[in-house]
Amino acid sequence: MAVIKLHDKYFKPRIEASIIQERIKKLAVSISQIVDTERPLFLGVLNGSFRFAADLMQYYDGECDISFVKVASYEGLKTTGSVKQLIGLEYSIKDRIVIVVEDIVDTGNTIESVVNTLKSYGPKRIIICTLLFKPEVYSKSITIDLPAFEVGNEFLVGYGLDYDGLGRNLNDIYIITNKMKNIVLFGPPGAGKGTQAAILMEKHNLIHLSTGDIFRFNIKNSTELGELAKSYMDKGELVPDEVTINMLEAEVDKHPDANGFIFDGFPRTTKQAEALEVFLTKKGTTIEQMIALNVNEDELVNRLLLRGKDSDRPDDKDEAIIRNRISVYNEQTAVVADFYEKQGKFSKIEGIGAIDEIASRIAVVIE
Ligand code: AMP
Question: Which of 41, 43, 94, 105 is nearest to 70 (CA)?
């Protein structure tokens, strides 16, 4: 189950379809025990309960009737609040057991008005059965007899529940997620990823994660990771995936409240891209866009040799190592673009020109 988008909002998995079905089976059994030999009337409250009511019936063995009602709200002429009216009640419920089937009970306003109206027709008993119940916000005294799931004050969609019309057809239930802005800055060494990342970070209040910088920090501090990474970096080769992925995930986990991340120099292999996807999905987020900076090889070599003159990066000082880094990029890293292109998240930007011109080209894509 992945993160999904409905209109402008993102939702992550909350209750899996198989768990919903298991719970509904148990509810059906509880209902049979309560009604014993009587023939109850299941009364679904539209629209949200249509799926829950259908599945509940599927698992209910005894004789029963099913009908649906709708609660219409309208503004009263003299009163201030809205008035609720029950429409569509076709059955006589006098002296019958009525099972009200709701998708969600939150403050309880709707269920209260449904129950009050039904009571006026003299049923033998009313049993309230709801898929979701929010005890934290429930403010009425009517007992909610059979809630399938108790949830917090969360915004949920799926399995009958909608967000502005969408999501009712989903088999699982999803919860809204505060969407992070996660961007991959892509391109060969010397394309200007670090420079553009600094601008983006400032503008969107994002965390900039450069795997190259993290490795160099570890080398400087003579850590075990640094020592391992150095043996690859000095030759212009890639540090093994497993080491890099673990390190990157640990860095992301250091910023639980981040607005999002700019990944600079990661992912550099398809395996890294796949691992990042799985990792972000578990956190209820995803990559929004990969932005690739396009710069020709001669320009890259010139830029890196120039940078090598006043930096302490040994891999920028030797043209043979620089050329090896570029060929490693062409052979192992360039394919990562396909991974994002397939998802419609890839944009190529011309990486030659003034820094602020390139930044404006990126802004057009992001905003
Ligand atoms: P950079 O600063 O991005 O040019 O990276 C410098 C060097 O760090 C690379 O040539 C690799 O040896 C290593 N490195 C950085 N990021 C990665 C990565 N995602 N996977 C493997 N090696 C990496």
Answer: 43
